[in-house]
Design goal:
With 477 residues, the protein is of the alpha/beta class. It is 31% helix and 17% strand. The strands form five sheets. A six-stranded mixed β-sheet has the order 1-14-13-12-10-11, with helices on both faces. The two termini are 23 Å apart.
Length: 477
Amino acid sequence: MSASSSTASTLKSTPPTSSPSASKPKKRFIGSKSAKPSKPGSAHLNSISNQIPSSILDDTSLNAAIQQLPSNYSFEIHKTIHHVRKNGATMVALQMPEGLQMFACVIADIVETFTDAGTVILGDVTYGACCVDDFTAVALGCDMLVHYGHSCLVPMTETTIKCLYVFVEIGIDSYSFEPDSSAELSGLNANIQPTRLALVSTIQFVAALNGLKEDLVKEYSPPSSVSSSHLYCGKYEPTIPRAKPLSPGEILGCTAPSLGDVDAILYLGDGRFHLESIMIANPSIPAFRYDPYSKKLTRERYDHREMRDARQDAVQAARKSILQLENTLQMNTIESVDGSKPKTPLWGVILGTLGRQGNFKQLQALTKQLSQSSISIPYMPILLSELSPAKLALFDPYISTFVQTSCPRLSIDWGYAFGKPLLSPYEATLAVEKEGKSPGWMNREEQQEEHAYPMNFYTANSPWAIARSKGSFDVTT
């Protein structure tokens, strides 16, 4: 569904003291080891350090062990050791995304050396904070879980054991614009009024957004050796938007804020998955991405029409299955010659079992919605950790439509690959509503850019967030 990005230019940066070999594959979370942690992150750590005993902070052996980890990665080892000791943990589960698992053994060794606890590494795939796997940790006999690389989407008050979230803030090199790179932004509002930028990122780089904001508000004077005709020297008016309960500037692949008066989106990070979320939610706003590893600023694009057409087709196919159900129910009043009755098509409601992706109350909300629709829709609950076209094809021909609670992006990005409609909870709501209640993005004749497909799966007070706590929907499409 994603369109390709075009490289605008290369950005200056402080040269690293060491760089990985060019032959090595790029790791998702790997930055240059010469970078210093950002100031906001350092301040945050200093405030936390006041709560950590000096016996831990000043432990020479512990500090020497920490040197085995990259200095620009904030693994918060002192804090981890403090919490393991304070909680009296005997077995600690360590869970992290694949890009950080290369450090798992080192961290496990440190925990076992400086506490009385043993460790278990949870090696299953971890896509995001929704995958925090306290259930598996408990099954393995753990009494504490440390989850790395994501924000606390699942509150610590809701996990079944003590849980510590370590964001792993990554310090990045300082950066400045090359003359030809700023030209990419110059066409927005050049020499008329400040260019309004919305600064967003993943949790690893959120702390760096404040420094970026400070740099952008400063007026820039080009050196005498550079022709001002090739360099945009206008003013910027940066803001850091927020979609609660996420941190300011933080976006997820399924959750991003709807922006107001903004000229452009500037995303700090590598990859496109999270960026696409805010692009989908704000289709009329141009988006740019600064990759702190390649030091490149790129203009990013997304094929909104292709995505909307695919999702509309899925919703309409689900609606047709409801009409088919109505016809089948009418036919069931008449037996065929051999005395049999036509089979009633089912909907499959999938509860994701990968960590906390699936929420039982949200499953209840969905099944209640199907039962209470104008035509009671028969359904079959299905538990799956990973979805694939081959796996769901095994349910043919008994299930006509699937609704999955794992992640909306599974439907948005990969729904076209499945033989039957694969709906998100939002799309399932559209399918069971009457035709006249379809949102603007589903109108193929209009499909104006101002009609956005909502990306509010975890946004506070959204129907889906409410369903996860109350077990029912309160939906306005």
